[in-house]
């Protein structure tokens, strides 16, 4: 773990930095980590905890592939330092299903074939989960606007919007 | 990122003390600008003081106006019913900013302190007087389609990127600040600095001063305000040109008017001269055209951003027309 910290955050030739104790509750399970403060929440999830659902696209807050729910709110995990998420609950795409039982949003994504390369899908699903809870969007136009933080505009995009619209219309979430 | 030490502050006094004595220390709020710029090595603090636990996130509307805590999140301020009803231009400017994910992280104080999106500022290896004083300005000979037409100097013509600041400057907002020497209030119009020959000095804050909140005075015009933002794509993009306007019309005549522009100035750009010509004149197209022409009268465009002059003029007319006719 120490070795990983140095490699992912420090890089070669930089002085070893002091680690900070961080507790992350990821998909309901607490993890105690000692992290270089430079480690982002995205890196902590992927590199340190092996939770690889959240993807790194732009690493700059612009694509939404890294979207996770922190204390129930959607955020870009690439711009949040893991130390700043200390003690918080983090839900990733892995935490959306109940075991093997997919939730209605995940079922709708499959039904509508809402992934092309699939790279953006975990972020889309986390973002859409929050959007349904926020209750701000039901029409395709509103969904596009409130999903604009997830930048995928590949051939799957109309299907993504359709899948979200279908679940939003059902109103059970 | 360069190495840094991280500490959490639980109150403003502790946060200020930790940052004031160390010129390499910085406050961490939402991190959406700071962490981004640290990854790019544009900002290289060696100590971060996380202020997220400092209790400064309240949003309070009273008879005197609106008081927004510096750590209130953009999404929470936009969704606040009092803000949406009494100060629509603030809610609209916030909802036109960034994405839902970013608005959940980003704070009001951090928004006002965000740095320019000029690519030469963000990119290591380019000349930039803001990032490296004295190195020159690569935008002058390079890409400057997004750059400022108002408030520029020979040293820098990068735009100020905040939408919120444009709405706030139109409403005479005041920034509340606390530092080692106590508290002070800075009108938002004096908060951001023109580049002049020191473009790296961007605002009135001293090292260690913490923004504690923003006060927006109650006014007759705030309730009839709106934000119009024009950008290269329909959502999730910084402004090419934006306008915050507020109007009070009595019996078809303009009693009060506020106009501020974003995306075109080196700071949030209020235009009192344009407001002045509207007072006492009919709430009609000819008045809006006159105000809009004055709004861009001082514009000094360069080759690639010349289109912004006419665009800004039209955005002002559009904002005033739609505001004037809906209320
Ligand atoms: C992809 C993308 C798109 C965006 N689009 C827009 C847009 O369209 N419109 C727009 O307006 N913005 C936009 N933003 C910018 C975003 O709004 C800012 O990054 C955000 O508001 C900064 O707030 P923060 O709390 O995250 O600040 P931080 O990143 O935590 O801090 C920024 C700076 O402010 C200082 N600071 C923070 N809080 C205080 C305080 N209380 N007192 C003193 N100093 C303080 C920090 O030390 C730091 O220097 C966008 C950002 C991204 C990444
Ligand atoms: S990787 Fe975080 S928004 Fe692109
Ligand atoms: S499915 Fe590949 S980017 Fe969206």
UniProtKB/TrEMBL annotation, chain A:
The keyword Iron applies. Pfam families: Fer2, Fer2_2. Coiled coil: none annotated. GO terms for molecular function: 2 iron, 2 sulfur cluster binding; metal ion binding; oxidoreductase activity, acting on the aldehyde or oxo group of donors. Residues 20-96 form the 2Fe-2S ferredoxin-type domain. Keywords: 2Fe-2S, Iron, Iron-sulfur, Metal-binding, Oxidoreductase. InterPro entries: 2Fe-2S-bd, 2Fe-2S-bd_dom_sf, 2Fe-2S_ferredoxin-like_sf, 2Fe-2S_ferredoxin-type, 2Fe2S_fd_BS, Aldehyde_Oxdr_Iron-Sulfur, Beta-grasp_dom_sf. This is Xanthine dehydrogenase YagT iron-sulfur-binding subunit.
UniProtKB/TrEMBL annotation, chain B:
It is an enzyme of class 1 (oxidoreductase). Keywords: FAD, Flavoprotein, Oxidoreductase. The keyword Oxidoreductase applies. The keyword Lipid metabolism does not apply. Gene3D superfamilies: 3.30.465.10, CO dehydrogenase flavoprotein, C-terminal domain, Uridine Diphospho-n-acetylenolpyruvylglucosamine Reductase, domain 2. InterPro entries: CO_DH_flav_C (IPR005107), CO_DH_flav_C_dom_sf (IPR036683), Diverse_Substr_Oxidored (IPR051312), FAD-bd_PCMH (IPR016166), FAD-bd_PCMH-like_sf (IPR036318), FAD-bd_PCMH_sub1 (IPR016167), FAD-bd_PCMH_sub2 (IPR016169), Mopterin_DH_FAD-bd (IPR002346). Its EC number is 1.3.7.9. One of its GO terms (molecular function) is FAD binding. Residues 1-221 form the FAD-binding PCMH-type domain. It holds the Pfam family CO_deh_flav_C. This is 4-hydroxybenzoyl-CoA reductase subunit beta. It comes from Paludisphaera borealis.
């Amino acid at each position: 773990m120490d070795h990983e910290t140095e490699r992912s955050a420090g890089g070669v030739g930089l002085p070893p930095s002091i680690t900070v104790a961080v507790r992350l509750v990821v998909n309901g399970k607490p993890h105690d980590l000692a992290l270089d403060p430079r480690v982002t929440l995205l890196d902590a999830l992927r590199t340190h905890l092996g939770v690889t659902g959240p993807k790194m696209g732009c690493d700059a807050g612009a694509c939404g592939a890294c979207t996770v729910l922190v204390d129930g709110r959607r955020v870009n995990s690439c711009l949040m330092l893991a130390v700043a998420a200390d003690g918080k609950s983090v839900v990733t795409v892995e935490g959306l299903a109940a075991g093997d039982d997919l939730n209605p949003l995940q079922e709708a994504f499959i039904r509508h074939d809402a992934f092309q390369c699939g790279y953006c899908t975990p972020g889309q699903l986390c973002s859409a989960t929050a959007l349904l809870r926020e209750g701000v969007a039901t029409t395709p136009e509103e969904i596009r606007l409130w999903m604009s933080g997830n930048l995928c505009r590949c051939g799957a995009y109309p299907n993504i919007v359709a899948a979200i619209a279908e679940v939003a219309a059902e109103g059970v979430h | 990122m360069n190495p840094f030490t991280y500490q959490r502050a639980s109150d403003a006094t502790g946060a200020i003390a930790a940052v004031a004595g160390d010129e390499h220390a910085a406050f961490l709020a939402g991190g959406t600008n700071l962490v981004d710029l640290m990854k790019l090595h544009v900002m290289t603090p060696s100590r971060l003081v996380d202020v997220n636990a400092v209790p400064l996130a309240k949003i309070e509307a009273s008879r005197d106006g609106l008081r927004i805590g510096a750590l209130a999140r953009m999404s929470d301020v936009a969704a606040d019913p009092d803000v949406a009803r009494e100060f629509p231009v603030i809610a609209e400017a916030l909802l036109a900013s960034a994405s839902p994910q970013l608005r959940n992280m980003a704070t009001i104080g951090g928004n006002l302190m965000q740095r320019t999106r000029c690519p030469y500022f963000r990119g290591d290896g380019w000349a930039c007087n803001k990032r490296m004083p004295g190195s020159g300005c690569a935008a002058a000979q390079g890409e400057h389609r997004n750059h400022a037409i108002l408030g520029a100097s020979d040293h820098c013509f990068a735009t100020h990127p905040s939408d919120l600041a444009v709405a706030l400057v139109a409403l005479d907002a005041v920034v509340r600040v606390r530092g080692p020497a106590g508290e002070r209030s800075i009108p938002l119009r004096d908060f951001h600095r023109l580049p002049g020959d020191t473009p790296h000095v961007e605002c009135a804050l001293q090292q260690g001063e913490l923004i504690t909140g923003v006060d927006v005075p109650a006014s007759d015009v705030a309730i009839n305000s709106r934000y119009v933002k024009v950008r290269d794509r329909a959502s999730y993009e910084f402004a090419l040109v934006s306008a915050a306007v507020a109007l009070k019309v009595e019996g078809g005549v303009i009693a009060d008017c506020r106009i501020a522009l974003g995306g075109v100035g080196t700071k949030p750009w209020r235009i009192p001269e344009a407001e002045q010509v509207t007072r006492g004149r009919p709430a009609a197209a000819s008045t809006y055209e006159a105000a809009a022409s004055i709004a861009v009268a001082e514009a000094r465009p360069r080759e690639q951003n010349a289109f912004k002059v006419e665009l800004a003029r039209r955005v002002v007319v559009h904002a005033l027309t739609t505001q004037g006719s809906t209320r």
